From TrEMBL:
Lineage: superkingdom: Bacteria
Protein name: Endonuclease
Gene3D superfamilies per record: 1.10.8.50, MutM-like, N-terminal
Catalytic reaction annotation: Hydrolysis of DNA containing ring-opened 7-methylguanine residues, releasing 2,6-diamino-4-hydroxy-5-(N-methyl)formamidopyrimidine
UniProt lineage: Bacteria, Pseudomonadati, Bacteroidota, Sphingobacteriia, Sphingobacteriales
Family that this chain belongs to: Belongs to the FPG family.
């Protein structure tokens, strides 16, 4: 599943095509959740990302693309996988595969709170802390995946942030010291931008400290378990990461 930084990369790639104000000349694909006729001859107003959502904005509506677990895209290229949605412009084509597509009517700003997107210029760390304090009994391995608090954070970022902050994944929010809670919020954003740069340089996996590792950076064994209410795969070091109780 692509995490927030990967969607930012897609947004930047598409923006570099300079498609703003370009007319959609053709629509293809087997998408059933939107009426393809509503898109034809419409002009692109902007491309945005919110967490794991890629947003294609038109005058009165937005197409939302969520890549789920196995979604992919191609720019000016195709593949044999059944096409979910293809948009053809004068010189370029955007093709999306194995993804979830929805149509959002009206102003996109009415649908999203940009202050919870860890990659957004409008990110609000104080708001994140406030929301975390409202769920004191929640485990940190769950809250980092809560898209209403940390939009864009996925399982890779979760694991690496918890190791970077030396917090055991089953620590509860109420037991974290205030300074450690602030550090958790700060690193969720910071690691996301580190992820972005490493992904661009094709160095992401080389920088993993615990994710898919057998030993941590200090040479201690890594434990792999499905933890929390989300039951997502979690990699952690019992020697480096403290369980706050």
């Amino acid at each position: 599943m692509p995490e927030g930084p990967s969607i930012v990369i897609l947004k930047d790639l598409v923006k570099n095509l300079h498609l703003n104000n370009s007319e959609v000349l053709g629509v293809s694909g087997n998408v059933k959740t939107i009426d393809k006729n509503i898109v034809i001859h419409q002009k692109i107003k902007d491309f945005k990302s919110w967490g794991k959502h890629f947003l294609i904005c038109f005058e009165d509506f937005t197409i939302r693309i969520h890549f789920m677990l196995f979604g992919t895209y191609l720019i000016n290229d195709t593949k044999t996988t059944p096409l979910k949605l293809g948009l053809t412009f004068k010189k370029d084509q955007l093709n999306f595969y194995t993804c979830k597509i929805d149509l959002l009517e009206g102003d996109i700003n009415q649908h999203y709170d940009w202050k919870v997107d860890v990659m957004s210029d409008e990110w609000d760390s104080k708001l994140a802390i406030k929301k975390l304090k409202e769920i004191p009994d929640a485990a940190v391995c769950d809250v980092l995946l809560n898209q209403h608090i940390f939009s864009g954070v996925g399982n890779i970022i979760k694991n690496e942030v918890l190791y970077r902050t030396r917090i055991h994944p089953l620590s509860k929010i109420e037991n974290l010291p205030p300074a450690k809670l602030k550090e958790l919020v700060k690193e969720a954003r910071q690691y996301s931008f580190d992820f972005l740069e490493w992904k661009k340089e094709n160095k992401l996996s080389r920088n993993w400290k615990v994710y898919h590792q057998t030993e941590c950076a200090n040479g201690h064994p890594i434990i792999k378990e499905e933890l929390g209410k989300t039951h997502r795969q979690t990699y952690y070091c019992v020697k480096c990461q403290k369980k706050y109780e």
